[in-house]
């Protein structure tokens, strides 16, 4: 199994195209295909905040439909799904950019992308257990004792991280650094919390390098464990990046 696992894209379509091209993928078919049959994997949060969320959705849907990739949902994916269901969600924290893109589509095209995304979400696992359990991809990570389980508690952890229920001064949830105490053998690759550089702790890699906040879009190649990145075209927002002691 050979994968290139990509961090939170958040609508940064041009960066996705540049990164996959750097990794050796061809876009001649309109979506990235590798000549050596490597596959792409996505840690979730395809949409929101960036300029081309719908383009990212279409590409990832195509890859999954053609069995050329893997995907797990993130918290922003979950919110967009609930929006499409007609649930009462706040159109804030980036969802407003995706909704604005949808408004500019014809009704027929809006229905097509809505149905594609909902099918993607409905048919994707909460987290991916790959290569005989050696590799796990989960949006915000997963505790060792949660692997193989699918309760509401596990879902909350996978989508939002190890949240305490408290909030930071900027309104964001306080998250514990679960990776520091992870001692499992499976390598867990995740995103959700923007860091300036890919962060390896124990058998975990955080690959969300804040593309939508002016950082980089990064990919971790498996089983090589090499990292490739491309710079973001978005404005740099320093306070969005987390630092660890």
Automatic annotation (TrEMBL):
Residues 1-196 form the Calcineurin-like phosphoesterase domain. It comes from the Bacteria. GO terms for cellular component: cytoplasm. SUPFAM superfamilies: Metallo-dependent phosphatases (SSF56300). GO terms for molecular function: phosphatase activity. Pfam families: Metallophos. InterPro entries: Ap4A_hydrolase, Calcineurin-like_PHP, Metallo-depent_PP-like, MPP_PrpE-like. This is Bis(5'-nucleosyl)-tetraphosphatase PrpE. It comes from Niallia taxi. The lineage of its organism: Bacteria, Bacillati, Bacillota, Bacilli, Bacillales. The gene is prpE.
């Amino acid at each position: 199994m050979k994968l290139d696992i990509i961090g939170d894209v958040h609508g940064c379509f041009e960066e996705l195209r540049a990164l996959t091209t750097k990794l050796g993928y061809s876009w001649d078919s309109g979506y990235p295909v590798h000549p050596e049959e490597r596959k792409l994997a996505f840690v979730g949060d395809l949409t929101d905040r960036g300029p081309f969320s719908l383009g990212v959705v279409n590409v990832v849907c195509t890859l999954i439909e053609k069995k050329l990739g893997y995907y797990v949902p993130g918290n922003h994916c979950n919110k967009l799904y609930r929006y499409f269901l007609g649930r009462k969600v706040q159109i804030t924290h980036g969802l407003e950019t995706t909704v604005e893109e949808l408004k500019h589509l014809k009704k027929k095209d809006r229905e097509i992308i809505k149905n594609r995304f909902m099918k993607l979400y409905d048919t994707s696992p909460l987290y991916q257990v790959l290569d005989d359990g050696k590799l796990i991809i989960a949006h915000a990570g997963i505790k060792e004792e949660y692997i193989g389980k699918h309760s509401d508690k596990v879902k909350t952890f996978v989508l939002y991280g190890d949240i305490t229920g408290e909030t930071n001064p900027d309104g964001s949830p306080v998250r514990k650094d679960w990776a520091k105490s992870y001692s499992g053998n499976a390598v867990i690759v995740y995103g959700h919390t923007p860091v300036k550089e890919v962060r390896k702790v124990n058998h975990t890699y955080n690959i969300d390098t804040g593309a939508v906040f002016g950082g980089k879009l990064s990919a971790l190649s498996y089983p090589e464990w090499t990292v490739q990145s491309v710079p973001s075209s978005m404005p740099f927002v320093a306070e969005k990046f987390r630092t660890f002691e």
